[in-house]
What we know:
Helices cover 76% and strands 2% of the residues. It is mostly helical. The chain has a domain at 2-37. A hairpin with a 7-residue loop joins strand 1 and strand 2 (122-123).
Amino acid sequence: MTDSIVACATFRPDRIVAIATILSMDYHMLVRENLNQSPLKDDSMAKSTQSSEPHRRTRNDHKTETAEDYVEAIADILNEQKTCRLSDLAKRFSVSHVTVHRIVDRLQNEGLLLTEPYQPIILTSQGKCLASKCQQRHEIVYRFLLAIGIDEVTAAIDAEGIEHHVSPATLERFQELAEIFLVSNTNTIRAVASGSPFISKEEDSPDVQNIGDS
């Protein structure tokens, strides 16, 4: 092949450039094919997928966060005063009526609520179900934060953010631990009030480490 290239170069110098370019392209294509078949690439892709999963889940959580906050707020307002209007939500979230109107329209399109111009907002069955789920999740996180010694104001604020990003497994663990700490704290308070020695956790409450085995 070298003799052919030299011959071509002697006759037409531009042809050796074309041939060299073709050979270079063939070489790079071969390298790419080998890389595509390499197990290292598969491992790299697997690691990339694993590392991106938490970020993907966080983005998905953010997508539903506004809807969950709004249906939960509507349920709370309806429970307090029987009717809920745009002005109530604007006051609750400290945002403009324009912002509330845009979000309410979106949630209505998603089937979570119903409303008409100048009329109160009501939750659909789907919206009520989501609101109930959010309220239960919020209460579990809030009680867990109180159980580990967080003050009520801070626990209420932190629960609003945490509740949207906990998995069912984590939420279940929060509930279990909150109940354990509540029993332990109640026994301690009773012991102090009665003047008797502290009641040991081993005797009167389950072992925290063994909760997962029950």
